[in-house]
Each structure stands twice: as C-alpha cells, then as structure tokens.
Amino acid sequence: MKEYLSHTLVAREVKRRAVLMGGAGALAALAFAPRAWSAGDGSQVLNVRLGSRDIGSIDPALTKTGDDETVALQVFNSLVAPPRGTLDVGIEQMQPVLAEKWDISEDRKTWTFHLRPGVKWHKGYGEVSAEDVKFSFERQIDPKLGGVHGASFKSIQSIDIVDPLTVRFNLNATDPFFHVEALIPGFGRFIVPKKAVEELGDKFGFQPVGSGAYEFSEYRPQEAIILKAFDGYFGGRPGIDEINMRYIPDNNAATIAFLGGELDVTGGDRDPRWVDQMKQQAPDANINVLLPGSLQFIAFNMTVKPLDNLKVRQALAYAIDRSQWAKAFGIVHGDLPTIVPEVFYGALKTADIPPELRYDYDPEKAKALLAEAGFPNGFSIDAIISERPDYKVNMLMVQDMLRKVGVNVNLQVQDHASYHANIRQDRGTIVELSTAMEPTAPQVLNEFLSKAAAVGKPSSLRNFSHYGEVGGSVDDLVAKAVAETDTAKQLEYLKEAQLQILRDVPVVALQTAPLITAMHGKLDLGFNPVSGYGQYDYSTAKLVNT
Q: 497 versus 27: which is more confidently predicted?
C-alpha cells in the first residue's frame, strides 16, 4: 500500500532547492532568530512552530485553530485537567488546576469547585476569583459574544458564586461528562479575568491576560507570538524564560528550520517517510506520536441502495483489510477496531469484541454475503471524496479492496471545502471522515450515530449513515448511559451500544492517524506525552545539558 502514500520531502534536497530558488517561506524560517536555547543575556529561549499563517484569536471563547489553542494553553488555566500528557478523563482521574478540590452531587447535576487561593492574573489584574469563573462561562453562553464553543456549555442552567473562592454549576439534567464537555483544557474551557476582558474589549484576543505559566509579551503579525515566563505563576516560575511561537505554514520550511536548529518544536507530516527522514537527519530529536489523533472511518449512507442491505454492509466490512493500514502508515497508524478509540472513556475494549463482530479480512465471505444479498456479480456505486491526502489515500485503499470482491466505487475527487459541503447536504454514499473528537464514547456515538445527528436535519451533526433513522439505533442505550450515575452500569450500556453498532455496520473504522511532533532532544517537557490534540503545555519544560 506504500504507493498510495503522498510524496514528502527529502530534507537535504528541499533545503538545497529552497536556497537555490530563494524560497521565501524557508528563508523566513531560517532568518527569524539566532540559534535556540539561549538569548544574548543567557536566558533560555524556546522556538515553537505554529502551522497556521497568523493568529485567529487567543481569547479562549474565540479560538478557531489548534495553533490558537497552543498559545492559549500557555497563557490560561482551566479548573481541572486530565493527567498531563493523556486524555484520561474519568471523573476519578481529574487533576486540580485552578480548582484545588470539588464536590459533585449524587445525581451529577450540581458541581461545586473550590478555587486555589492567591492565584495571580498577569499584568497586575489581581487574583482569580469565583466571579471570574462565572463570568468566563456566562460570556460564552451569551449569543451576543459570537463565541465558537458555546455548545460545550449547553448543559449549564445557572452558575452561583458561593463565596469569593467557591463556584457552583447547576445543570439542566444529570451529566456525568460535564467535566469533559466544559471544564478540561482547551476549546473555550479556560478561565479569563473579568476586569481585563471588560477593559480591553476586542483587543483581549490579541493582548490576552491569563493566569498561566507564560504571559503574553508581543504579537508580530504573520510572524510570531512572544511569551515570557510569569514570575508569579502559582505552580512555580517555569524553567524556560521565553517562548517564540512562530507562524510557519509550510511543512517543508518548518522541517528545514528544525534541521537547521532554528526551531525546537515542529509538527510533522503524518507520513512514515517524514518520520524516517527526521530520524536520519536529526537522530537526537524526540518524535512524539500522540494517539488517537484523528479518527478515520467510512460511513455507509443507508438511504442509498444497496447500502440499506445489512448483508451488503457486512460484505463490505469483510472486504476491507484493515491490517493494511498498519503496513502502509507504520508509526503514524493507530488501531481503531471500532469507531470509538480504545483510549476514550467508555470505549469497547478490543478483547471484548466477539470474533463474529471483528470483521477480520475475508474476501470469500464478502462474496458469499453479496450473493446472498442478490449481488453475485457485485455492483457499482458512485462516491465523492476530498482531495486532501488523509481522505483520498484512505478511500483509494478502500476502492482497491472492494474492487477485488466485485464492488466498483466510482470516485469523484473534490476540493476539501466542497466535499464537506456536499456530504453535509447528504450527497455522500460511502463517506470517509478524518476528525478529532472529545475523548468519550457518548460524544462519538452522539456525533456520528444518533438519530438527531443525521445529516439533513436541523440538528444534524455528522451522522452520514442515517443510523438511528434506518438500520438500527443505539440512542436509548446512550441516553441511559449518560443519565446513569453508577459507573459500572454506565460502562455496560456503552459497551452494549458499541456491540450493537458492530452488528448493524453503519460504519467501518479504518484507523486513527496520530499527531506527529518533533522536538530537539535537549527539551524535557516534564511529562511523557501519550495522547492529546497536539498542543503541549510547557509550564514544566526545561532545557537539559545546555
């Protein structure tokens, strides 16, 4: 399957061509700063690549990209967080951040948080209070703000200030996953200072004030965000004195800058050859592979014949050799036996999947099922796909495998924006998706497989199979799980829901595509990154052997 993979750079050749051709992106990357690690005064400096062209906003309510989130993670704090370097989000796994302790009512409708005393805001804006917490959430719920993360807080009915350091969330209904939806780092869940937001107004997104390990220092449009260590950080002054967050959208230019020593951290191509080349060119670098990364799966539109036939869907599942993704993608592959990654809360464990529901590759069984369904000679079906490599490559692999059992998928390749517009308008048949998700089974099941999420409905999310409308449903099981306060019963409901999905085959999971980051070996994060969304917290980072 290697032939399906997109070509990537050979670092030395790209560097040579960039110099010969005067490549602006590469030269800009190399010209920004002197060698990393120390400035002229001996302070420690870290250069981190951001892959976008410029800032969107660093106001947590308005962040739009992963790069915005990377900056926000250094400047702001959330109430609680998973163990560092993980997406372990069970209630019992929550770690204190701004909240030092909490109380959760038995029915999971009332969540009370007790804040650390004496946590300072940057720029002399005083100390973090319950009023700031209440303000941070209520402004996002207010439609006048135009925030992009408001849906995460829809379960909040009201917020009470119990005392200056105690805040209580009253929810509309039982919600065991409130901490995941609304409290852990990222996607609007950071706490902001009321006074600074009101004083700065629209400027707050470009001059943020937080309580994090690093405070905002300077913004250079389309070039960099400069952060400085915050002496008053409640967790202790960070070991890195300055972080230069540098905008370098071109992967080739970023790789050149990393190999040339002008970047210390860069995202990489999700291609095993990029990883191999990086290991050869920078053997002392650490290559972090964060699972689960993007979930990659195909959905069968069951309103389209013959995909409405269970035996046809089962046949297609048996015809897809999922072991080939590991062979093709190597280190940038993660197993995905079901649509919910095993590292997510409530996920069905691989060991709990019975043999008859694993759909191990069996082309002869696929042909037999097609014959039973009335298609002894197979069939042809039209499908659209995005031109983006992580979509197109997967679909080409599927197309090739299905052809071997007599199913011809006639692919029309479209630009990425058009593809998403069309599948949202229910113009897809076999629909491929690559996406990150909040790490819980209910979130995945509700987003992709609930009746309310079926495309074409006003409430639609990304249920391209129409599961729940046709071909079966797990809506009741998921609803029972979400309303259940007994963890064992909750997990049992979620397990049965995922087994039922395997029986009904509205989707076939392909793989997860981990997020790849290269870091120079002298950087010690202070924790071991295992899973996440590709944003790293540098509050405990230090430079060793400098």
A: 497
Residues above pLDDT 70, as percent of the chain: 91
Strand 265-267 and strand 507-519: pairing? antiparallel
With beta carbons less than 8 A apart as the criterion, state whether 85 and 527 touch: yes
Most confident of 27-41, 90-104, 358-372, 531-545: 358-372
- How far, CA to CA in Å, does 180 sit from each of 94, 214, 493, 534? 10, 24, 19, 17
Q: Which residue has the higher pLDDT, 33 or 290?
A: 290
How far is Cα 523 from Cα 546, in angstroms, rounded to an integer?
10
Residue type for 173, please? A
Angle 132-482-531 (CA atoms, 0-180°, nearest 5)? 70
DSSP code string of 223-259: TEEEEEE-TT-TT---S-SEEEEEE---HHHHHHHHH
Q: Considering only residues 322 and 153, tell me which one the structure prediction assigns the higher pLDDT.
A: 322
Residue identified by tokens 């990489």 is 268
Task: Using alpha carbons, list the distances in angstroms from residue 91 to 181, 205, 290, 297, 340.
Answer: 12, 31, 22, 28, 19
Q: Residue count of the chain, please give it.
A: 546
Q: Which fold has domain 80-195?
A: Dipeptide-binding Protein; domain 1 (3.90.76)
Q: Give CA–CA dist 270/522, Å, rounded.
A: 23
CATH T-level assignment (fold) for domain 2-51+213-285: D-Maltodextrin-Binding Protein; domain 2 (3.40.190)
Verdict on whether the full-model pTM lies above 0.90: no
388 residue type, one letter: R
The whole-angstrom separation of Cα 333 and Cα 398 is 16
Q: Which residues of 497-536 are buried (b: 16+ CB within 10 A; e: fewer)?
A: bbbebbebbbbbbbbbbbbbbbbbebbebeeebbbbbbbb
Is the Cα dihedral 208, 209, 215, 217 positive or negative? positive
CATH topology of domain 291-514: Dipeptide-binding Protein; domain 3 (3.10.105)
Q: Where are the domains of the chain?
A: 2-51+213-285, 80-195, 291-514
User: Quick check: 194 and 121 in contact, CB under 8 A?
Assistant: no
Q: Which two tokens stand for residue 527?
A: 């924790």
Query: Nearest-CA neighbor of 366 among 317, 410, 409?
Result: 317
